[in-house]
Amino acid sequence: MNRAERRRVEKQKAVRRLQKELTGQILQEVENDRVEALMTCFVLALHEEFGFGKERCLRALRRVDSYMEPYVSSKESVQQLKEKVRDEVGIVISC
Q1: What are the tens digits of pLDDT across the range 52-88?
Q2: Tens of pLDDT along 2-29?
Q3: Strand runs (DSSP E) across 1-95, as ranges?
Q4: Is residue 56 part of a domain?
Q5: ∠ Cα 81 94 75 (to 5°)
Q6: d(CA 66, CA 28)
Q7: Does residue 95 lie in a domain region?
Q8: CA-CA distance, 44 to 51, in Å (whole number)?
Q9: Residue 43 CB contacts under 8 Å (≥ 6 apart), including other chains
Q10: Helix and strand numbers, DSSP H then E, in the chain
Q11: How far apart are CA 41 and CA 9, in angstroms?
Q12: How many domains does the chain divide into?
């Protein structure tokens, strides 16, 4: 492989690394937007359906966050959380 070919290969590798990094950033932004939308809808439902005010909504969000932490840190799976909801509440969640 001559010098020009090595430069071309290195340039392609750099482009691929950049694409991978940007793809990861975009996916993270999309995931963050989804979580934010879900939390927003959750608070609106609590407020409109049950009359929850600021303090009760914040308590609920903190509780939701406490359930999210084991999932985010890979200590608990979505399946385990869904089973807990099924067992304790009697609701099967599937999308």
Answers
A1: 999 999 999 999 999 999 988 999 999 999 999 999 9
A2: 888 888 888 888 889 989 999 989 988 8
A3: none
A4: yes
A5: 20
A6: 20
A7: no
A8: 10
A9: 52, 57, 60, 61
A10: 3, 0
A11: 48
A12: 1
